[in-house]
C-alpha cells in the first residue's frame, strides 16, 4: 500500500443527544471524496474514539467503509488502552474490508519500548493487514523509538508511520534510517518540512473542512516540487495551525470548521464542550483569511 496524498481523519457528527448522525457522516464522506482527498480514516482521536465503545467504533467504521464503497482507501484506527480492544478493532477492520489500520501506543499505561513493540506485533498477528504506526508521545507519553521501530519494522505489514511528535529530528531519523517505513505528516505545522524530507502523505484533521487547500499544498510540494510556492501556501495556513495545535480545543475547532463548510458536525461528547462565541469568531476569521490568500496564490497573485 502506497501512502500518497491527503488522508482525512473523519470527525464523528453527532445529534444533540450524543447519538451518531449517520446522514451527516455520509455527507462528510461524500464531500471529501468530491473534494479530491486521497483516503479516509475512521476511529481516530479526531473522531472522538476515546468517548466511544469498541462496538460503536466498529459500527462507525463499517458505515464509513460501506459509504466509501472502494472509491478511496479506508484506514481504521485501533488505538485503545486494552490490547484485546485493539485486536477486536483490527480484526473487525480486516473483516469489513478496510485497507489498513492505524496503530498507536496504548495510552496511560506507559509501556517500555519492548512492551509497546510486543503489543503492536500481537495486533499485527491478529489482523495480518497493512499497518500505519502512530507516534504521538504528547498524548501517549511514550515514543516509538529505535528499539520499537527495529522490532516492529521487520513485519512486512508495517508500511508507514504517522509521525506526530513535533520533533523535527524524528523526521530526519525516519527519512534516513527507516526509509522502508513510509513517513506521513502527523504534525500539521510541519507539513512543509515533512514534504521536503520525502514524505508523500499528510494525515490532517483540517482537511475535514479545508480539503481543497490541503490537497493544493500536497500537489504543489510533492507532485510539482515547487517549494517556493509551497512556502507561500504554508505561510497562509500557519495561523490555522496555531489555532488547531496550540489552542487546546483541537476537535472543537475541527468540528466548528466543518459546520462553517456547510456540513453538520453536532456537539462533542463529554468531557469536551464546544467553542465559545469569541473562539468561533476567531476561527471563522482565520479560515476566511486563509481561503482568500490561497485563492490569490492559485490565481498567480
UniProtKB/TrEMBL annotation:
| Keywords for this protein | Lyase, Schiff base
InterPro entries to which the protein is assigned, alphabetical: Aldolase_TIM, DapA-like, Schiff_base-form_aldolases_CS
Q: Which GO terms describe its cellular component?
A: cytosol
What does the entry list as the binding residues for pyruvate?
46, 203
Active-site residues, record numbering mapped to chain: 134, 162
Q: Which family does it belong to?
A: Belongs to the DapA family.
Give the protein's recorded name: Dihydrodipicolinate synthase family protein
What organism is this sequence from?
Answer: Paracoccus shanxieyensis
